[in-house]
Design goal:
The protein is built from 6 helices and no strands. It has 154 residues and is mainly α.
């Protein structure tokens, strides 16, 4: 029961973060801290994923994103990196990785449609946070099923 409440708070924060990032292209640090705190509470309440996978989840996506920013400054926002680290604490390594793949797929389809329709121009900046939030939310609801399906494709 407590885990379901934490899942609900996690989803509500993702909705809020996604809307704020879409509108202002900024993710408030206070919301990231709340998200991270929910991940810690979930780790106390549930043994799945274990603490090692939760800690690994903090770095599984955020560290490569940070390295991309070092190589290509301005390519990804710092809020997106912190968002994935906080999400990794909640979801663990496997599901944060899957959520990132889902986010990139959704983002790619949105960009392709935007370019084809003329609503987007090449090299135009846009908020990545809503896609990251949608990928994490999908993993809260269907993560294990999606992971099995995705692993079967490989």
């Amino acid at each position: 029961m407590v885990l379901q409440v934490l899942n609900g708070f996690f989803i509500l924060l993702l909705i809020l973060i996604g809307r704020i990032d879409y509108k202002y292209r900024k993710i408030p640090n206070g919301l990231i801290i709340l998200l991270w705190g929910i991940g810690i509470l979930a780790g106390i309440v549930s043994r799945e994923p274990d603490w090692i996978l939760r800690l690994a989840g903090m770095f599984a996506v955020s560290l490569p994103l940070f390295l991309i920013v070092l190589a290509f400054p301005g390519s990804i926002g710092g809020g997106d990196i912190k968002l994935m680290a906080a999400g990794g604490m909640f979801l663990g390594m496997k599901l944060i990785f899957l959520s990132f793949i889902l986010a990139l797929a959704g983002c790619g389809m949105w960009c392709a449609a935007g370019l084809a329709s003329g609503r987007l121009r090449r090299k135009e900046k846009f908020a990545l946070g809503p896609f990251l939030c949608a990928g994490m939310a999908a993993c809260v609801f269907w993560g294990e099923k999606l992971w099995k399906w995705f692993a079967a494709l490989l």
